[in-house]
Design a protein that fits this description.
By secondary structure, this protein is of the alpha+beta class. Helices cover 55% and strands 20% of the residues. The protein is elongated.
Length: 378
């Protein structure tokens, strides 16, 4: 025990220990800062999913479709839904990919055909500047699309689908804060002309009353539908947020593996350098009777100590650094409220994995050193 204490103190007095701690600390700081930022983003996304949790809106699609534009449904399904007292806001829709041609050029956009555009926008709580399209020669355009392509109220645009082209006049610009803001809404008659007279629809959107058993209502609706259709819930924000968080964590884990691999490589270099610079001291310990196990344990203890100190400093440095940076960002841009944080269990896990990676990286040079005789080291 006395020999171990003397040898351990001797190795720690080497100047290489400070460089080893600093190298590990900088690597761990990058990992800790990434974890703290991801924690904040996940917290905000979960909060958003909790505040906005729309329920009761569903879509009926063709079961063999791969996209909304490929789906085809008979229009009589909408009539069956309207006959149910607990179903409201039934909106058959036709989705088309069209070329929009105006003074700025020609671009590919989505055109959504709706039977009652006014009710469709009202159900989404949209703000409409102008009027809803009332005939096949009129259309309403989303605010984002209108700004991107400089389409103004009262302007005329040309829509082309599969060689069929019609000109429509923009009678309204709407803002719904949904994906429809990047689309053009046209009456179902206009969508039928562009589709070549096809009487089918791409999807049927409907919602249910709040005071009913959703599971029982959906089971009754499924009985009325053909076999080749499916029902999906719209705006599954919580599930979408969960998937985003899982993908972010998976990416962070892959990034962490790369960092731990670099930590192992740095520990290998540190151990090799320690053995080279301390060859005389190690040889003297062997002359005085120190066994191979003691030398091996000394090197592992040295690297573990450097990893422990470096990872602890790195966690503190990374967490504090991100918080300082976020505070400075709030001073510069008050609207940017970023508050990164690191959980205690995450900090402990980072420290333990860093120590394990460091020990793994130094095993080979430590094992090599004990197989070298003290005469060779001298």
């Amino acid at each position: 025990m006395m020999a171990f204490a003397i040898g351990y103190t001797m190795l720690l007095r080497r100047g290489v220990v400070a460089r080893s701690i600093l190298a590990i600390a900088l690597l761990v700081a990058v990992l800790a800062s990434a974890n703290s930022i991801v924690n904040y983003l996940n917290l905000r996304s979960e909060a958003l999913a909790g505040f906005v949790n729309p329920r009761g809106t569903y879509l009926i699609l063709s079961s063999n479709s791969t996209a909304l534009t490929d789906s085809e449904l008979p229009l009589d399904i909408a009539a069956r839904l309207r006959s149910l007292g607990y179903v409201k806001n039934v909106f058959p829709q036709r989705i088309l990919i069209a070329n929009l041609t105006a003074s700025f050029g020609s671009y590919e956009i989505l055109v959504r055909g709706v039977e009652d555009i006014d009710s469709f926008l009202e159900a989404r709580g949209a703000y409409l500047n102008g009027t809803a399209a009332g005939n096949w020669m009129e259309a309403d355009i989303g605010e984002i699309l209108a700004r991107a392509f400089s389409v103004s109220l009262g302007g005329e645009v040309s829509l082309t689908v599969g060689g069929r082209c019609i000109e429509v006049r923009v009678v309204g610009v709407f803002r719904s804060q949904t994906q429809s803001d990047t689309e053009i809404l046209v009456p179902m008659e206009t969508a039928g002309i562009l589709a070549g007279g096809n009487a089918t629809v791409s999807l049927i959107e409907f919602s249910l009353n709040e005071d009913i058993d959703i599971r029982e209502a959906l089971s009754q609706i499924v009985v009325l539908l053909p076999d080749n259709v499916r029902i999906v819930e719209a705006q599954q924000l919580r599930e979408f947020t969960l998937q985003i968080n899982m993908q972010t964590v998976a990416f962070l884990n892959i990034w962490s593996l790369a960092v731990y691999a670099v930590v192992a490589a740095a520990s290998y270099v540190a151990a090799a350098r320690l053995i080279t610079e301390s060859s005389y001291e190690l040889a003297m310990l062997k002359v005085l009777g120190a066994g191979r196990r003691l030398i091996f344990t000394l090197i592992l203890a040295y690297i573990a100590t450097a990893a422990l100190l470096g990872s602890t400093i790195g966690v503190a440095l990374g967490t504090a650094g991100t918080q300082v940076a976020s505070t400075m960002l709030r001073w510069i841009m008050p609207s940017m409220d970023v508050a990164p944080f690191l959980l205690v269990e995450q900090a402990i896990r980072v420290i333990l994995l860093t120590i394990a990676s460091s020990i793994l990286g130094c095993i080979y040079p430590a094992f090599k050193s004990i197989r070298t005789g003290y005469v060779e080291q001298l």
